[in-house]
Design goal:
With about 325 residues, this protein is α/β, with parallel strands linked by helices. The chain has 13 helices and ten strands. It folds into two domains: about 160 residues, D-Maltodextrin-Binding Protein, domain 2 (3-Layer(aba) Sandwich); about 140 residues, Periplasmic binding protein-like II (D-Maltodextrin-Binding Protein, domain 2), CATH 3.40.190.10. Strands 1, 2, 3, 4, 5, 6, 7, 8, 9 and 10 form a ten-stranded mixed sheet that branches. The chain is globular.
Length: about 325
């Protein structure tokens, strides 16, 4: 029997290893998704901007990110709980209600493992009405045809909470529609509805479309019942729609608002949360430039404001290391 020489065996083994290396991907990647909102709103461009900042350093950290359009806050929370997205952008009032338990989210089951990552830009409870509808105050909406947005959206759910707090039933209105954000301005200008109620960062393309395509007005929200609701809620803050942003909007108009927030779950890997936070906070100037509504983002408010769920441990560690949180902070 012929005997193999040691040299040939070593060459064969080396070739085998080389083939194995060539067949193995040089860098495996983690794929993550961020649940956002309608492509015509601000959650989608925000999610896209966050992913862009994360993806530009992909070769180092091995994470690829994509933004996923959705109906909005409640749909995102459901998707996050079911593991269909890894992060979600949600209104701060619905972060609070989901964590504490609310009938509109997960059938009232408290989302105990929801974790905050950071807050984003402010959102204002906004009412746009046709000029000929006779709506000059929030109470004037009664008896009118209104749009509150699709089920699963924050605008729909927040309006339901406001109605409940004021003791208004659905029969207070002539009609309640659930048009998507990208079609509500057209519905207003076609005369299908008298007003649309939604929660938005400003400037808003939806408001601009409604105020330029037809005769419509922003409605100031400053009635005593609303002021009491804001004071007692613990989730809303008085704010305003700035003046000079839209046609016919010369002065600031009082309202109340919340904040957009980025959330994940307790189970999300520390490395991924760390890299998301690092990408955003190290390139915050770029994020501010992504849309005029993002221009006032500040690290301090993003860390400390509008958080109800506990911070994810990896986010908390980053903020402490960056001196944005005291060591004793939760």
């Amino acid at each position: 029997m012929a005997r193999r020489t040691p040299g040939i065996s070593r060459i064969a083994a080396g070739l085998f290893c080389l083939v194995g290396l060539l067949a193995t991907p040089a860098h495996s990647e983690d794929f993550i998704t961020i649940g956002t909102g309608s492509v015509s709103g601000l959650y989608y461009p925000m999610g896209t901007a966050i992913c862009r900042l994360l993806n530009q350093d992909r070769k180092r950290h091995g994470i690829r990110c994509s933004a996923e359009a959705s109906e909005g806050s409640l749909a995102n929370l459901e998707a996050l709980a079911e593991g269909r997205v890894d992060f979600a952008i949600v209104q701060s009032d619905w972060q609070a209600r989901a964590f504490g338990g609310n009938a509109l989210v997960r059938d009232g089951t408290a989302f105990n493992d929801l974790r905050a990552v950071f807050s984003l830009y402010g959102e204002v409870f906004t009412v746009i009405a046709r000029s000929d509808a006779g709506i000059r105050s929030f109470s004037d909406l009664q008896g009118k045809r209104i749009n509150i947005g699709p089920k699963g959206s924050g605008q729909n759910a927040t309006m339901q909470e406001v109605m409940a707090a004021l003791g208004w039933r659905r029969d207070r209105f002539a009609e309640i529609h659930e048009f998507a954000p990208d079609s509500q301005s057209e519905a207003l200008c076609r005369g299908e509805i008298d007003a649309m109620i939604f929660v938005a960062g400003h400037p808003s393309a939806t408001v601009e479309a409604a105020t330029t395509a037809c005769d419509s007005v922003l409605v100031e929200i400053n009635e005593p019942a609303i002021l009491r609701l804001v004071a007692n809620s613990g989730q809303y803050a008085l704010t305003e729609v700035p003046g000079g942003l839209y046609r016919g909007n010369e002065r600031a108009l009082q309202s109340f608002g919340v904040s957009a927030t980025l959330v994940t779950t307790e189970a999300q890997r520390a490395k991924i949360v760390h890299e998301v936070v690092r990408a955003v906070f190290s390139e915050l100037d770029d994020l501010r430039k992504a849309h005029p509504a993002f221009a006032e983002l500040s690290k301090e408010s993003m860390v400390k404001d509008y958080q109800t769920a506990p911070l994810h441990p990896a986010a908390r560690s980053f903020y402490r290391f960056s001196d944005l949180l005291e060591p004793s902070s939760r």
